[in-house]
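Shipment paperwork, digital attachment
Item: protein structure file
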Amino acid sequence: MADACQVLRKQDLPPPGGYKPIPFKRVPAKQFFSGYTLFAGYIGMTIGAIYLYQLTDKRIKRHEIEMRSSKMAIYPMLLAERDREYLKQLRRNRDAEAELMKDVPGWEVGTYYGEPVYKLVPQDALVEPIFHEYYAHTNPVEWFRRAYIKLRS
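Attachment content:
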């Protein structure tokens, strides 16, 4: 029984003639391209980049010209709409003043108890109100938003 359990083991030994020497010297990298090839590739890439830049630059300039033209075309209409809204707000302010002061005897809208506020200005001249007067009868949130924009610009 003792003979059956014993297995003949083979010892791991070096191969005949020994192991190869261990490479420890620096192995230089393989060169696939020479300096001239790299320079030619750089020139080719530069020419390609310049070509792509010119194409993109032309497209951007065309877009800028179109946007500038459309802004110049729509600008008079935007100014007219702005002026129209300005006059509508002045009318709303005047109507709100009339509604607020309707019970006060002797009060005329646009005057101070019948006396004109601006004595040297003709009756038909538009006197532009200051910022606080213009937004006097609007929503306070809108007033704060506009005041913030006006102070920051």
